[in-house]
Design a protein that fits this description.
1 helix, about 5% helix
């Protein structure tokens, strides 16, 4: 009975493999249920059905998992029409999730990164994250936005067009001002930097500070005794009411 069962199982497996038209060449790419595409030089691929694949690139020793995408040596191509292309890359630089809208079979595809995770633990949504220094952990959103944390003061920060490279604050893109809100043990600080050039150093200026005791400073460090400190003139288009007014020069 056991021999009969073994024979029937082997017969079914062989029959199924034959019906799928699998291709296992002695070298090069292989296909399960499909004849593999002609991948470009340096790639080794296992294609699964009409669209799936697992492939490796010798150029960066990276592994990739893809759907409806193959590399022909010049560009990424679609296997079938009207199905979006997706590629997950795993390489020395980390993880990258790429997509391309549906196209035509054999047509070229333009991949866009929708999520990346560097080996340093930095996350990029819609962008490749910068390399942050100084103990920072960061999530970048699009070309300029970010949320990051500093291990030096356990503070959280929300920034736009700024990242810290370990030595200074840098701009992500050109001609856009940098802004930064810090939240730490000492309170809140609102900073800004005039627009600069991508990769260039930024000089931050404090616009507004609120310390942990609730004292506010506009253009200056908050006082330890006065609720509001202002560096500069104050303009009002209404009444100013005070129980006591002290004028000093």
């Amino acid at each position: 009975m056991r021999n009969l069962f073994t024979f029937l199982f082997a017969f079914l497996v062989i029959g199924q493999l034959h019906s799928q038209s699998n291709t296992f060449p002695s070298s090069g790419n292989a296909g399960i249920g499909i004849t593999p595409n002609s991948w470009g030089s340096g790639f080794l691929a296992l294609q699964l059905g009409a669209t799936g694949n697992i492939h490796q690139s010798g150029s960066d020793n990276g592994m990739r998992i893809g759907n409806n995408m193959y590399w022909d040596g010049t560009s990424w191509k679609y296997n079938v029409a009207s199905v979006a292309g997706t590629v997950l890359t795993l390489s020395n630089s980390g993880y990258n999730f790429l997509t391309a809208p549906g196209g035509t079979a054999g047509g070229s595809a333009s991949l866009t990164s929708v999520l990346s995770i560097s080996t340093d633990g930095f996350l990029g949504i819609g962008t490749t994250a910068n390399t942050w220094g100084g103990g920072f952990k960061a999530m970048q959103i699009g070309a300029t936005g970010n949320i990051h944390q500093s291990g030096s003061d356990n503070g959280m920060r929300i920034g736009n067009n700024l990242y810290y490279d370990g030595s200074s604050w840098k701009y992500n893109v050109s001609s856009v001002a940098g802004t930064l809100l810090t939240m730490s043990n000492t309170g809140y600080d609102f900073f800004s930097a005039p627009a600069g050039t991508a990769g260039g150093s930024a000089s931050l200026t404090s616009l507004l500070s609120i310390n942990s005791a609730g004292y506010m400073g506009i253009g200056t460090t908050p006082s330890s005794t006065e609720k509001l400190s202002v560096a500069g003139n104050i303009s009002a288009n209404g009444n100013i009411t005070a129980k006591k007014l002290t004028v000093t020069q």
